[in-house]
């Protein structure tokens, strides 16, 4: 853009700078300030209140020796991979089906999208009701006569995290579908005609032509979904409370609990720092890609 | 002034008890109790309460577990000093056991008001359920374990419990009841890793493993009073829970000794701890509020309030000098033990920092949920937690 | 089929783009290679085979799109406005290439375009369509010189044909077109139907079929006009004049400039003009 | 202008036909099954909320109510208890409205100005600020909670309406700014230049040229903020103060304070009532949401 | 300033669009009214004043955009490719309108365009730019007929000028251009510097400056060539031939068609040709 300001005058674009004050303040104080604060204090032995007694990497050593943290981290991995893969795949398939000139498109779209309007607390509660063995699906199926039917993922510490995945997918896939649909609608119709003329079957067209063309949409989606994954908290609290045992604990819950309930700020902040680092690891490749993308444009 | 009081007493009996406090306070006139109940449990409410105090928007008074939960806040000078009124009214003279009161002291000053004594080493049983299962009411843990299979056959849940802190409560109860007072103090007070690794402790874990077998899978996400109502309705035969469960039995109109019964210390070692609820009064800028705080504090320990409140809550009063004629069979059992003092231990809240306490909770709930976790593994982890405890 | 928007698969190299349809059809590798080599040769795509479409210029992209049709070895090509998205220079270059390709392959090509220059230069026969109906199907020069109706006449030709609305007057063999103070003899006009007197007609003549003189020409084929504007376009100029109160354009050699307001004389050539019925808009 | 909204939300090509080919049947079949998975929870909530407690205990969660009762709804709205108060959700509802309206307006106002400044008036460092802001979109709330408590305490806005509005504005800023920036950047630059040539300044261009052109993205922003703020639990419970407890917090209180038996029907009714506002927003403007997402997110 | 993309404010009516700048400047209402009326009159926008840009055709939009510049009563107009987004027909219409406007207002207009027809028709003087440097600043016909360097020569003119690479040969007054078997006398060429023998040069001649004959013309000004393609463009045709192994195009009247492979004779007109140094690419 040619109207980039000359850098040397402070008063050039003064209005813009004034208008951006809230943003700059937020960035400097909240995002940068809080991040630094977090990182610094993660090296202290702060308990309820922040104090500057530095203990080196002790908090980190403890963090990685805590089974609960390790379970949380693994759970986040499981939740992340499954959520990413399934929400993208299901979201794309739904969007592709919706793009087939179907009737009632609006109704289907609303149905797929409405869970996104509900809070994680509500989502968690509803799915808890549905998945509770004494009450939900298991009981219903047993009442139908299948006495031995077992579907109690909520109470099985091997599967509890998958219950979170199921509820999370229910909540978020609609948004992915909407993004994908927007992406599909953005594809030149001539591409479809061209592949028809080339005699390429529809599924191959999707796989080899359309999906590669939708790369930016996929990146946007993956980034959006990833942000949600890293901060998953409410859903776990409402659905499983982290249980059974620690089977469905997640890092955000670990952080929150150590900060406010265990009166061990240092430990909570060490966990925060690890989370922040993870986020950076996700973002940086994306940012680099975007930068290159920007140049290509 | 309006005095906002936060607490997490939202179950039936608890709410009734809170109401007692509110009404008594309002009756004093001048000031008003503004109820700030936060549903869930201590785990939901504590962070909110703590963050509000830290955030400089303190409530007038708040429930917090006596013990080290509030220690840092006191240390930071965020709590109103109650020493003056406590000395004037001579709290130290009538609050018993004195250990309970000690928990409110920091550097010789008083910062909280204990309102009740909660004892946790109880197993509540429904005789009717045992009868339905074709077994006699057990007298101790071993008998109970033996009765388990038969109860299960009859589709009766042997042990009703709930997630997280509830199973941890079972574990801690077992440390004192199965392991005995000595073990309890060595492990939790002295942080003695050798004791934690001892065969006695192993027995505790083994008993805990048995409890794991006796619970139903539906325990996940169940609240403690739901579990209690399972026992009340006879769907389950027993629950290991603190004396506050009695509040629920009371609300349901059940009579101790006939409709339900209690095994103190799981019928093994009759050891009780003296935990309890306490109220803290965060420092406030408004002098009116401070005045009201002191008024509330004084009211909370008054005889009248103590009786009415504890009857509703199912807990024991903090004063030795109140008339407990109205107390039921189970409460009397408890008072007996308390009066002897031999078998009284401090609560886990007082002995362990929240951090260590919740480490233990993490371990106990993980063990409870994971049938494949062996007693040895669990004990090994327990030892390392005790070693690192501060 | 070749599309206006090229419709290349953006993530594939040119070679992949060309071969994708063949691979899907399951052709043997060797044959695919050979066809691509052939198409690349014809369209001079060899140096581009390993590039992605994003790295190609518009003209190169369209050549690849043509190549994609070429490798499929079809009997009929369908071009849907293949050059519309290119700039003028590329357009005229690629136009010639397509024409060459046509000569070389000698198979049927159907070519849809909005650009009448493309139509005129490329086609053996042009179908001018309007509202889904063919208006005229003829050889290019016939369409240009003898448009069947007013739409075709105004659609084809740039600068556009001039139109004057008027009446037919005059005696038997001496029919003439009259509009305001202008009268043009229609003696040499090749009418398709009898020219009845007083009929409302539109007289159309192309800018290049009028000459400008400084002196009046033969009576009935000449008139006076005022220069309005002079647009030099390089080789020739377009001179805008006012005749019978209407603006008309005349194409002249650019060696002589005309000044606004200058009075000149125009010579008409009715043999090259077109006459349309004012109501049916068909050629008479 | 044609440059705006070039992505259509209509499917390509001809309108749907009535003929049912096997492929069509399969498409509808798959969609219907998927739809079932999506509506099931809502269905469970609704039928349960319309049943009486005895029926709930006997039947299964999927069976329709035999005897429809609206009692749970009125209980949930007016008399469900949390602690000592039995006033239902209505208090929380009005609290939420009180938080929602200023938060939505202020956060969108600020974010749109940010987006505009970033898209059209870049100054030195603006891109860096933007990158950091984007990074902020990824930071889990829990991580920022403690320092924010301290910051709001220092600003003396902790536990006040102002406090919670500021917090919502801060957390809404990254993603909204991104949306607005992308949207404004997708408007033709010439428009901006033309207004500059016409002598208009920063604010005039914003309010008279940019804002009137940005209805789609404003709608998306409103949808995002309304649902986000309405559904928020953690921030509300910590920063809003006891006088402004939002509806979700009250819902949690009602659902988790069991008096004797769990009143599933009341809980479900309360849940639906709490979700009603964002649900209505989605039902009525889902179309604009998809369209706006296309304009603001996908293109950028 | 008038933009290629019109840059009208889509949410405002035409009238609001026109008045926006004036309102920003705080002009009194009456004066704004008067200026808008004036501009609307000049550009025939009256019937459109209450419409929004979306309800206007491309040409109307561009007229409004011009109007927006007009009302501001400036001394200099800057047009940035104002017609590029219009289709050919509208483009040529609006081009004439802009020219009329220029005549009427008689103030300075700077007009940026890629379209050389626009440049040639509209400009009093043209600056041809390349890489930010002015290549030639001259009157249109000078630029067309005497391009100062190869870039200008190839940029201006459509169809483009033909170029042949060769050498200068011959005695003093009898200089000639030679490439392969072709020799063209340069006797009538108006050289700017001495034509030294054996100098590598590029000989450029426009398609309309060659004539095609069936018989050979005067020696040294004529050669034989083979027809390659014939592109009828309505009024005239472009015939592509091969001369000295290179393709060249010649513009001829479309009344005669040429068949590929036909042998014809070409007559050159060196007075209208251009000669460039092969290394500096400047005119000699
Ligand atoms: N003096 C300069 N210094 C640095 N960058 C420049 C300068 N002039 C132009 N640019 C950059 O070059 C690019 C093209 O500039 P501009 O749009 O003015 O070109 P243009 O000649 O008008 O192109 P077009 O013919 O397509 O309209 C822009 O990105 C602009 O930022
Ligand atoms: N026979 C038909 N019945 C119904 N709708 C049709 C029919 N033919 C075309 N259409 C519709 O008309 C619109 C334009 O069609 P199409 O793209 O074929 O026009 P076109 O002449 O190629 O236009 P352009 O010249 O811009 O390429 C499309 O939306 C198409 O769906
Ligand atoms: Mg078309
Ligand atoms: Mg430009």
Automatic annotation (TrEMBL), chain A:
Annotated localization: Cell membrane
Major localization class: membrane
Family: Belongs to the binding-protein-dependent transport system permease family.
Domain ABC transmembrane type-1 per the UniProt entry, residue ranges: 73-286
Residues spanning the membrane: 20-43, 73-98, 110-130, 159-184, 205-230, 269-288
Topology of the protein relative to the lipid bilayer: Multi-pass membrane protein
Keywords: Cell membrane, Membrane, Transmembrane, Transmembrane helix, Transport
Pfam family for this entry, one: BPD_transp_1
Protein name as catalogued: Glucose/mannose transport system permease protein
Database matches in InterPro entries: ABC_transporter_permease, MetI-like, MetI-like_sf
Automatic annotation (TrEMBL), chains C, E:
Keyword Nucleus: no
Organism field: Phyllobacterium ifriqiyense
Protein name: Multiple sugar transport system ATP-binding protein
Cited Pfam families: ABC_tran, OB_MalK
ABC transporter domain ranges (all copies): 1-156
Xref: Gene3D superfamilies: 2.40.50.100, Nucleic acid-binding proteins, P-loop containing nucleotide triphosphate hydrolases
Homology family: Belongs to the ABC transporter superfamily.
Molecular-function GO terms, alphabetical: ATP binding
Keyword Transferase recorded: no
Top-rank lineage group of the source organism: Bacteria
Keywords: ATP-binding, Nucleotide-binding, Sugar transport, Transport
SUPFAM superfamilies: MOP-like (SSF50331), P-loop containing nucleoside triphosphate hydrolases (SSF52540)
Alphabetical list of PANTHER family matching this protein: ABC TRANSPORTER ATP-BINDING PROTEIN, MALTODEXTRIN IMPORT ATP-BINDING PROTEIN MSMX
UniProtKB/TrEMBL annotation, chain D:
SUPFAM superfamilies: MetI-like
Record domain ABC transmembrane type-1: where: 93-285
Keywords: Membrane, Transmembrane, Transmembrane helix, Transport
PROSITE patterns, per the entry: ABC_TM1
Keyword Transmembrane: yes
Pfam families per the UniProt record, alphabetical: BPD_transp_1
Membrane topology summary: Multi-pass membrane protein
Protein name: Glucose/mannose transport system permease protein
